[in-house]
Amino acid sequence: MSFLAKLSSIKTRYEELAALMSQGGLNGEAFSKMSMEYAELAPVVEAWEALENAKAEQAELQTLMNDPEMKEIAREEFYALEAKIPEFERQIRMALIPRDEDDSKNVILEIRAGTGGDEAALFASDLFSMYRGYAALHGWKLEVLAASESDLGGYKEIVAEVSGKNVFSRLKYESGTHRVQRVPKTESGGRIHTSAATVAVLPEAQEVDVDIQDKDLRIDTYRSQGAGGQHVNTTDSAVRITHIPTGVVVEMQDERSQHKNKAKAMKMLATRIYDQQRAKLHEERAQDRRSQVGSGDRSERIRTYNFPQGRVSEHRITLTLYRLEEVMRGEALDEIIEALIAEDHAGALAAMDEN
Question: What is the pTM (predicted TM-score) of this model?
Answer without folding.
Answer: 0.73
